[in-house]
Each structure stands twice: as structure tokens, then as C-alpha cells.
Here is the input.
Amino acid sequence: MEAQWPLIIFTLFVCLTCGIFGAMSILALKGQGRQLQFTSLISATVSLAIGGFGAFLHLEHWERIFNGFGHITSGITQELIGCVALAVIIVAWFVVLRGGKEIPKALAWITLAVAVLMLVATGHSYLMPARPAWGIALIVFYVANACLLGAVAMWLISIMKKDEASEGSSIQFALVGSVVQLAAMAVYTIACSMTKFADFGFYADPTSMTTAPTHVDSLLAIMVSGDGALMFWCSIACAVVALVCAIAAKKKVGASKPYMIIAVIVAIASSILFRVLFYQLGFAMVLLY
Amino acid sequence: MTQMSIITDANRCVGCLACSVACKAVNNVPIGNYWNKVVRVGPNPIPGGSGDFPDVYMYFLPISCQHCENPECVKVCPTEASHIAEDGTVQVDKEKCIGCQFCAMSCPYGVRYLNEEEKVVEKCTLCEQKLNQGELPQCVSQCGGNARWVGDMEQGLDSFVGSFDSAGEQRKMIEFIEPFSDSDMHKLPDVGNKPSFSYILRDHHWEGGDE
Here is the structure.
């Protein structure tokens, strides 16, 4: 199916938001990143707003959003609840920071939990038995992707704020995040290799006899050497570059800006490319025109 | 409980597309959208045959919303625009639809379409406007091969009826069509959605996996 760009924007920025919240919380639990917190909070808020706006672009009748909205089994409803929960977290952090106090450990843990739940809800929205490529591995990818995006975002902010302790931690996060993202990509690839489609043998659309019917024998083949190969290999390459940057920057804390710039670019590129791949692989289980 | 449904006798379907055309006409289905579409399955080789003509077979498969018992489209709808009606059919309240199209993505059969003009998702309604008045869905009444039959699955196969004969008598499926066994009844591939529509195919291998 065609790439749904509003949804790609939404999931990208949700992962970025949750990643920033996750990294902020971990730094807060380590007693670091005090001077990054306000900038990070603003960044997460803007990111959530952009993501939410992206989601609205997907709706044909966004003005009806509250017209009976709230069917709890719907992933969109769950995502909206998650966005509201994140908004509450933002307010809580803002109130604490405005008071000049240290972020309580409990708030950091709650933030971490809400961020993970939001990522699970986002992945869960796309879990559709009708589309074999959209399985549980999507949730794994979104959580991993948030780790990488959050890490590189904190790396950027820590350099902006000249906080070397946080910079060192952020580089460490980026290293772990890129490894986790690569692992999630491997999980997704394995999951795709196990998918099956209904096979109707030869078939045709009598209203369009000259159009060749779609056959999918193997999603893995499409990913590795077919139409999805460009997205697949480029997204992996980008994640590898992010990992190399993090490794190279480990011993250059305080002078890691060039590595950070590359890491930010490739992390975003890898995230977008893999999302486009999701849609390229999003064939219906019954492929009859 | 009621589960209105359609049974299609694939051995009787001649692939004339009258059901598709009738559906388009009576429901004003936009160009490019198909609430009811017919797929030609085959020619596929007969098991044990040479693989070449004449050892092949073919049948036609009219596909529309299967009005599933456990529909994914209803689960993913954020506004409950997609819902299960009292007669067991899956309907879309177009006033509630926000056009997110997740229902279209979640449907295994690709039978939901965005109406570009109204910007809402539409699909086969089983001609509820006609059923509610005691009439037949247009694809059933228009079926030239008497392959389409409508009835209540909960009431059993005896309840399935089709078009009227020249004497004005309504045809009953069980009395009209050729004998078949339970093993001749098939459903489209099920991913947990439990399609309520059934297909009868005798003496041929049912493609697409079984229920």
C-alpha cells in the first residue's frame, strides 16, 4: 500500500517525544541533566504537537473527531488517551521545574512508564491480522526507535547546553539505542519471514484483464531484494552509521558535535525509511484486487 | 440473534458481473470503488492432472463485505461509525465517520473504500435500505445464474431465498440449487474475523485456504 505520510509523521514524532521523555527520566534518575530539562521538555512538547498535527492531516473529517470519539478498542482512541497522559506529564514537569525543584524520582518513573505505554499503544494501532507485515514486531520497533531518537535528541540538547556529563550519558544512550534499533529491525525481519498470505493460484480481475494480479510469495524477498530493498538496506545502513558515530564519540565527550550531527540525520533517516517500508510491505492477507 | 448473510453458489456463478453492476447502480457507488467485485479464480490445475488444459478448472468469486461476526473494522473504528447492526450486518454510520480509514486497512478482503467526495468510508450494506422493506439485496435479485441467496445464518440454510420465478414465487435456495454437502461450503480466509458469508463449491478445490 502507499506510504501514509501523516501517519509516518505521527509515529515518528510520537517516538521522538517518548524517547526524549525516556532519556530525560533516566537522566533524572541518575541525578543528571538538570540544566537540560526545560529545553528537553519544550522539545518533547513541540514534538508531540507536530505529531498530533500530523495525525489530524490523516483524517478526512477531523472536525468530527469528538463526534462519538472514544471507542476504547480502537488504537486511535488509545493513542489519544496516551497523548492526554503525556500532556499531563508535561504539565507536571513544567510545574516542578517552574518551582525550581528537582524532579521527584516517582515522577521520572511514571514518565518512563507512560512513554513506554504510549509507544505500545502506537504500535498496537497497527496490529492488524489482515496485514501480515503489521504484527507484534511493530511494537518492538517503535520502542526501539524511541530509544534511538530520544538518545540523539538528548545528545543534541546536551551539546547545546554544554552539559558534558549529560553528553556522555547521551552518547551512551545513542550507542544502546542504535543497537536496540538494529535488533528490532532484525526481529521485524524474522517476523516478516514467517508471514503467510492466502494463495488463490491464478486469478484475474475481469474488469481489468490486462492488469497483472499481485502475488506475494515472501515478504522477506521483497525486503531483501525486491521493491522494499532500498528502504530496508538504507534504514539498516543509517542505523549502523548512528552506532558507529556513537562508538566514535564515546572518547570525544565535549567535542562530539560532528558525530552528533551525523547521528541525528541518520537516526531520522533510518526511522522514516523503515516506516515507509512498513507500508510497502502492508499487503492485505487476501490479495484479490 | 440474527446474522443476515449471503451464500453464493460458485458452481452456478457465470461471472457475468451483473451483481457488481447492480450494486453500483442501486447504491451509487463511485467510480473506482467496488462494494461488490467479482474475481476470476483460475484456471488452476486439477489436482493429479497434467497441469495443462483441459486438466484445469475455474470459478468466479463475488466478493463484498463479508459482514463478519467478529469484525476487525468495528474494533478499530474510533467513533463507532462502523458497528454491528441488529440484523448482524456491519454498517457504517457516515455521520460519525472521521475518514481515518483504519477500517479499510484492517479489512482482510479490501472491500472498504473511501468515498472521495463525501470523505467517508463506504462498503456493502447488504442493501439494508431494501432488506428493511422486505426486498432482496440488488446483487441477489439481479443474479442471472441464481447463484446468490440471502438469509439468516442463525435460522439455518432453509431461510435463504433468492429471486422470484416467472410465476411470482420466491425461490428457496435449498429447493433450487443442486445438492451439496457441508464440505462444499467454504468461507474466505479467516484471520479471526469470522466472515458470515459462505460460498458453495462442488467438485473443485477451494483456493485461498479454508475456514
Q: What stands out?
A: The domain at 5-280 of chain A is CATH 1.20.1630.10 (Formate dehydrogenase/DMSO reductase fold). Chain A has one domain: 5-280. The radius of gyration of chain A is 20 Å. Chain A touches chain B at residues 1, 58-62, 64-65, 67-71, 73-77, 80, 125, 128-131, 198-207, 282, 284-286, 288-289 (CB under 8 Å).
